[in-house]
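Per your request, structure below.
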């Protein structure tokens, strides 16, 4: 549960700064991945989605739910 609150806080901060992230899960997810892992945007999407736990990244579903709250 603590991890979800951390995701929520970071997601809210990103959405305050980035208007596109407020309306698009993918934009928000990319911005959060770049916060958690430097240059995540340069990695192949498949690598991020298949290895998000090992990379210390939040799941896409968690980010989407957070944006819709």
């Amino acid at each position: 549960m603590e991890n979800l609150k951390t995701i929520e806080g970071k997601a809210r901060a990103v959405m305050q700064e980035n208007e596109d992230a407020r309306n698009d899960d993918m934009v928000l997810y990319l911005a959060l991945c770049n916060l958690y892992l430097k240059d995540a945007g340069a990695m192949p999407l498949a690598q991020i989605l298949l290895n998000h736990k090992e990379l210390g990244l939040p799941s896409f579903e968690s980010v989407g739910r957070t944006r819709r709250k």
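The mean pLDDT is 89.

Regards,
D.
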